[in-house]
Design goal:
heterodimer; A: mainly alpha; 0% strand; globular; B: six-stranded mixed beta sheet; two-stranded antiparallel sheet; 8 helices; 8 strands
């Protein structure tokens, strides 16, 4: 499949959640809700950004976005904030009980993906390490909490499901940590200079 | 699009890092304020914790829904109508449940004995509501009532008329029922104290049934003051 077709498919993935049976199937298990739906929503946002920025009409918009996302600072802040909020047990429950919270969840993960699609390549290695390290730390902490809690922390999920999610979050944290270390340890660690010259004061 | 071209945009050159820095600070302040509000000062992180704050503030009230009792009648419980009891002790069960629901049934049977021995007036009423509208019809409720020797003057067993009614009632009190994957349910096994209008005034665990009865009597004005 061509790359353009792949990004189109990913960009349209959230539409599938309009199908109640599929949405219920994904969100009725804590593990698929957190470890499948959240990354897919972010991937959909990223795919939509990649599709849109090929259009000439998006040039002006992207210019503004980059002016407000200097070296990926805003992308990193938004993505970390979104991940933090949706790891809270009460936020997960709210997303299942109140449509407004569900809409906020879809929109925030999608937006985080949209911003990261352009922002992560422009991040300095230090910021990338900090942002992904922070994400890995949050995921590992939440994972340990979900794994060790003697009772259900989310009223909508069973305790076994909670434990499985805890294990998944810890694995995700380890994977994210390993990937970012690999990336910043590359000899040609010049992601910023490849995509964008460093900003210099006039 | 040429990324380097956009990166060298006049906007980025003119403004530098400051707009982004200010935006990040604003986002972080908004996040901190939002989390502070949502978690009530970074102290309440779960739905159950938020629910407890809500009922203590008197914000949870049982929505009136159509119920059927074990005699296939429509019981009139809390609400604005005449003849409502001053206090209700309510549990949520399903009749196929062999664990916590049975234990709740035994406790309610014991509480019924205590209420029967009290002076007449019936200010406190026991209510068991099944949320399993598919399996628990009037016949099943009648069998369960006979098994528990439930006196309808003191203890009402009822089921909502529809799954939507059951959801409306459960949600209004913050009770969540989850399928256990084996045909049953995992649910809140607490005893809920409701006043005559249906406002949730207390939540007691199964082993606090005696305290629940005392609180109900105090609420009804027939028990010793705290």
């Amino acid at each position: 499949m061509k790359p353009r077709a792949v990004t189109s498919v990913f960009a349209l993935l959230p539409m599938l959640l309009l199908w109640p049976a599929l949405r219920h199937a994904i969100e009725s298990r804590m593990a698929t809700h957190m470890l499948l739906e959240f990354p897919l929503l972010a991937a959909a946002g990223a795919a939509a950004a990649m599709r849109c920025r090929r259009r000439p009409s998006a040039r002006r918009w992207l210019r503004w976005q980059r002016a407000l996302d200097w070296r990926g600072w805003t992308s990193a802040t938004v993505a970390s904030s979104v991940a933090l909020v949706w790891m809270l047990p009460s936020a997960l429950d709210a997303a299942l009980l109140w449509p407004a919270a569900a809409a906020a969840k879809y929109a925030s993960w999608w937006l985080a993906g949209w911003l990261l699609a352009d922002g992560w390549r422009r991040m300095d290695a230090e910021l990338l390490l900090f942002a992904v390290g922070n994400l890995a730390w949050m995921a590992a902490t939440a994972g340990l909490l979900y794994l060790d809690a003697p009772a259900r922390l989310c009223v909508n999920y069973l305790q076994d499901d909670q434990r499985h999610t805890g294990i998944g979050l810890i694995a995700l944290a380890a994977l994210a940590g390993a990937l970012v270390l690999r990336r910043v340890a590359r000899p040609s660690n010049s992601v910023v200079s490849r995509d964008e010259p460093r900003y210099r004061s006039p | 699009m040429d990324e380097a071209g956009t990166a060298r945009s006049p906007h980025a050159r003119r403004h530098g890092p400051w707009p982004s820095a200010l935006l990040c600070i604003a986002l972080l302040i908004a996040l901190a304020c939002g989390l502070n509000r949502w978690t009530h000062g970074f102290e309440v992180w779960t739905f159950e914790g938020r629910r407890e704050l809500q009922w203590r503030a008197g914000e949870l009230r049982a929505q009136p829904v159509d119920l059927r009792d074990s005699n296939a009648r429509t019981p009139q419980l809390w609400g604005e109508q005449e003849g409502a009891s001053a206090a209700y002790l309510v549990d949520f069960v399903y009749l196929r449940c062999a664990s916590v629901c049975r234990a709740l049934g035994s406790e309610f049977q014991r509480l019924q004995g205590e209420l029967a021995a009290a002076p007449p007036g019936r200010p406190v009423h026991l209510v068991s509501i099944s949320f399993d509208v598919v399996h628990d019809d009037a016949g099943a409720l009648a069998r369960y009532a006979a098994e528990q020797r439930a006196d309808p003057r003191l203890w009402t067993l009822a089921v909502p008329r529809s799954a939507d009614d059951a959801q409306t009632l459960l949600r209004s009190l913050g009770v969540i029922v989850v399928p256990d994957g084996e045909g049953g349910y995992v649910h809140n096994g607490d005893i809920h104290l409701l006043d005559a209008r249906g406002t949730l005034r207390g939540v007691f665990t199964l082993d606090q049934a005696e305290q629940a009865l005392q609180a109900a009597r105090r609420l009804a004005g027939v028990g010793p003051a705290r």
